[in-house]
Amino acid sequence: MTASPICRKTAAKSAKSRIAAVGAIAVAGALLLSGCGDQTNDKESNAVVDAPLADKLPKDIRDKGVIKVGSDIAYPPVEFKDKSGKTVGIDPDLGEALGKQLGVRFEFENGTFDTLLGGLRSKRYQIAMSAMTDTKNRQEGIDEETGKKIGDGVDFVDYFTAGVSIYTKKGDDQGIKTWSDLCGKKIVVQRGTVSHDLAKAESKKCKGGKKIAIEQYDNDQQAQTRLRSGGADAGSSDFPVAAYAVKTSGGGKDFQLVGEQVEAAPYGIAVSKKNPKLRDAIKAALDAIIQNGDYEEIVKKWGVEAGAVKEAKINGGK
């Protein structure tokens, strides 16, 4: 979602597929909307060099030049609004890079995390990209808490790996080092996340009536505000998000990480099972940016190299 060096690099990577001049006008317009793209004119054929993987997309998406992305844009550094109100972060940058390969613009639309898959099922979005952990339950449309089927499952294109971390107010860890140490204490989490699921599962294991008091919020920033104000003992988020909060909140004076991250699992781009062509196009584009170095450039920019993957996978979650 931020402007990045990818645009400068893409122009140097000559695409191989070509289209006739009449059809190229529409595609070129879509590329202009994306901010940059390889639009080198071929003087002999008067054609425009197209994005290398555009023909892998479903025709209706290719013609519109846009992929609508459902995302909870309050989860820095994965996706969030900067001071100017622009959507930025790891996912927006990756979306921009994928768009250059596919010849379309990834248009991020804000929604609360627990509504994103419903929005995908209702066709409000064509994909969901929001630090979403690829799990078997989500693949099969099973509610994580009740174990009951609540709708169609989704396919995931896995693009990153992250564990879950606990953080507390700085200098006040209250003896919390592991999830079992949370028994009898209060934790704040974002609703519908792996952190939320872990807290509920751990609370069931607590003995002596000392359950974990769980406060759930629409987004992670609300949870952080509650912890910062002293309204809870700890918070939990995916490691990249927790580490970013520790580094940036209050100039690094508000929070501290405690213990080790757990439950390392893949983040996946969710796609309807009814749209395998879109899924496969995104996988091909992800493999392309991994191979050409754009992916590495983005994860380094955000300091999350530890979670980088070497290849795209479909439904790699457990």
General description of the model:
Helix 4 (90-102) crosses helix 10 (276-292) and helix 4 packs antiparallel against helix 11 (294-301). The protein is 33% helix and 23% strand. The chain is built from 11 helices and 13 strands. It folds into 2 domains: 6-162 and 266-314, Periplasmic binding protein-like II (D-Maltodextrin-Binding Protein, domain 2), CATH 3.40.190.10; 163-264, D-Maltodextrin-Binding Protein, domain 2 (3-Layer(aba) Sandwich), CATH 3.40.190. The protein has helices at residues 6-10, 21-33, 59-64, 90-102, 116-121, 136-140, 194-205, 220-228, 239-248, 276-292, 294-301; strands at residues 41-42, 47-48, 66-71, 80-81, 87-88, 105-110, 127-128, 154-169, 186-190, 213-217, 234-238, 255-272, 313-314. Strands 3, 6, 7, 8, 9, 10, 11, 12 and 13 form a 9-stranded mixed sheet that branches. It has a two-stranded antiparallel ribbon with strand order 1-2. The protein is of the alpha/beta class and 318 residues long. 45% of the residues are buried.
